[in-house]
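Collaborator request, handled under Task 6.
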Amino acid sequence: MNFINDIIGEELNTFEKKFAEAVKSKTLLLDRIMKFIIKRKGKQLRPMFVFLSAKLHGEVNESTYRAAALVELLHTATLVHDDVVDESLERRGFFSINALWKNKIAVLVGDYLLSKGLLLSTTHNDFEHLHILSEAVRQMSEGELLQIEKSRKLNLKEDIYFEIIRNKTASLLSSACAVGAYSTCKDETITSKMKLFGEKVGIAFQIKDDLFDYGKEDIGKPTGNDIKEKKLTLPLIYTLNNVDTATKKAVIYIIKNENKNAGKVKFVIDKVTEAGGIKYAAEKMNAYRDEALEILYSFPESPVRKALEDLVRYTTDRKY
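Structure tokens returned to the collaborator:
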């Protein structure tokens, strides 16, 4: 990641200042919440993809900074709303907005962030940015609803799983790469290519998150959180589709009725491991990563391309 900072470190520092300015409010409560959000920001992966995708095809400009801000505004808004929907009291190790200020304020904060993104784009006539990101928001909503619909029956097929994560997770990263590229090249062919690149990275990123729940020495500590929340992840889907009927019934019963029992959760994790679910998911993750890199390699070699490659590999090699 240090090499990436050498390439876009200055842009990221400038972006942080511009983003803080973009979310300011004259309403004291709202301004206080915005400062809380900024202090607890995540790894900034999406802005990194915006700036590297932009720099791969031209010079970073004000349109690029607005594109990165729009991505981050929409991403933050969806996280705030997700915490309300999931009744989650924590976000990145800190109290969530809804835990500190209750659901009503959290929903309004999410709406405020969405409106700021809309205004940022329309004020500067960044209509292509807005079109690309609006499509992502639509996909994210559809993906979330499809997951809710399908998870009730615990009978998810692999193709539906990929449809869910393509919409729910990969669409925003895909859009980040697309708006970054468009901000500097204004070329629709390159923009589409970068969008597909980002989608494949986003799918690999989500599978890596799936693997964290089961883990092994080189992946992470097994927690079973997804099992406790009855989420159907790729290792589990593979297992349910490849074990005998008795084991499948036992695993489904635990997920539905005994998902808070640590011993039972360990039983599920062991069955997933024995069935090859972790190995299969890791192979799928690496396949999507390699497909993304193949698209990236179609562009001329440069330090920026190398930084993007490092960022792609980070998404699958990260430890948290």
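The cover message to the collaborator said: "The chain has one domain: 2-317. The first strand starts at residue 90 and ends at 91. Please let us know whether this matches your experimental observations."
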